[in-house]
Amino acid sequence: xxxxxxxxxxxxxxxxxxxxxxxxxxxxxxxxxxxxxxxxxxxxxxxxxxxxxxxxxxxxxxxxxxxxxxxxxxxxxxxxxxxxxxxxxxxxxxxxxxxxx
Length: 101
What we know:
Mean pLDDT: 82
Distance between the termini: 67 Å
Largest sheet: 3 strands, antiparallel
Number of domains: 1
């Protein structure tokens, strides 16, 4: 009976290690396609990044809107990167002078 328990314990241990290593992709939704239209900048509060190295099928910029939506956008589009740069600039200004936030 001991000979069967050891391989099972090793298998369970490695399974847990693999799941723990991929937790970030396993517990959040991945974008599978991009938004087909340009968002107005005024509706965006922030953004996050998705990469294929996280176990998701595409790289994406995920904007966070004031209405709680999370549209996936193509980082190769110029308007997407323009919005990202504008949000970064805004964040840097707030960081440098928090009293004007």
